[in-house]
Amino acid sequence: MRDILLTAIIFLGLTQVISRPYVGVYLWTWLSLMNPHRLTFGFAYSLPFAQIIAGITLLGLFLGKQRKLNVWAPESVLMLILLIWVGITTFFALNPDGAFRELDRFAKTILFIFITLTLISDRQKLNWLVWIYALSLGFYGVKGGIFTIATGGSARVWGPPGSFIGGNNEVALALLMTIPLMRYLQLQTSNKILRLGLIGAMLLTSVAVLGTQSRGAFLGIMMIGLFFWWKSPYKLGASVMVGVIAGVILMFMPQSWWDRMNTIETYEQDASAMGRINAWWVAFRMANYSVTGGGANMFTWQAFDMFAPNPEDVHDVHSIYFEMLGEQGWIGLAMFLTLLLLAWIRCARLAKLGKKHPNLKWASDLGLMLQVSMIGYCTAGAFLGLAYFDYIYDLVATAIIAWKISQIELQEGTAPPQEPVPPGGHKELRKRSLFPGRPSALRH
Fold it and tell me: Alpha-carbon distance 24 to 21, whole Å?
């Protein structure tokens, strides 16, 4: 039944793609992030939905006459250069088959990033794209939060099997990146039911992150909380609110959860942590040995035999930074870090727009929430090997699109009018936007 339902939904959506090719972007994003086909048990599990969606979307892109954005920005250029570099390192890879598989998947990701940059050409389409992010991963957040509460936190939350986020650590990172986007959507809607639903989704997703028992995600959620506190004009109130929520959630977690989190301080006694450090040494020595690194998926017995302090402990690298370092060398790591830095700067510029242009408060909200998502990725990603994860490149593209749309609205004067700025000006608006119960006066 699931197979039939999923296939019907996808093919119904495909009927709209030729005339509305941006629908293909939504289908692709939903499929790549949620992996609904991995929740089926029959023919749909292995059907090439992605290839079908990509082909019809490309056809709609060339045949359609809708407005298209200029795809070029420093970040998009760098993504293209990074893809070319990954192609170069694949020719010198220690694990050629594994490297080519990753190159093929990464090339498809970057191709669709450029399609997304082209087709998501106005604010309404952009907001729908953010809804796709939130709903695709929020499904696992709400489901995992309920599961964690029902089991008292004694069992771990896992992602869809056979997908990029199948592991507990991987799904924790994805959920962590999604919570701020739920907050953005909550700021943009005036519907009370939707607002309450999004608050509930954020709380349940936070519970699900803890329920994964991922130590990296636990550090990530702490950093996100610290960032919110730093940005809040009501630091005492924010501290009390966060403290109460965190206390209520943590009091339900079992002793096994606390024991696992305590290993952060005693990593020398934890075999998993020491295995990661062993793999990090492999990455460092590989990058120093070869300018092109070892190529994607290089962390095999051969690499450990050549470079590991302990060759017998073959372990996944579990770090976006050391993954890039070992597989793409110092050059690849520099590109990756520069891309994240450029995206952060872009988001910071977005976050400042609302101060000068009240009608662009939506862009300020989105820029700030994208920064929070990036904090989650960069913190938890230090302990997870998701350097090629679609989601982070999607969010970089989202920042570029938001900037271009905001500039179009400024040039054309098409931003819809909004309510007057309240007494206290933009300072008061920033205060309001940080609390769910006090919606911004500049919301659409």
Answer: 5
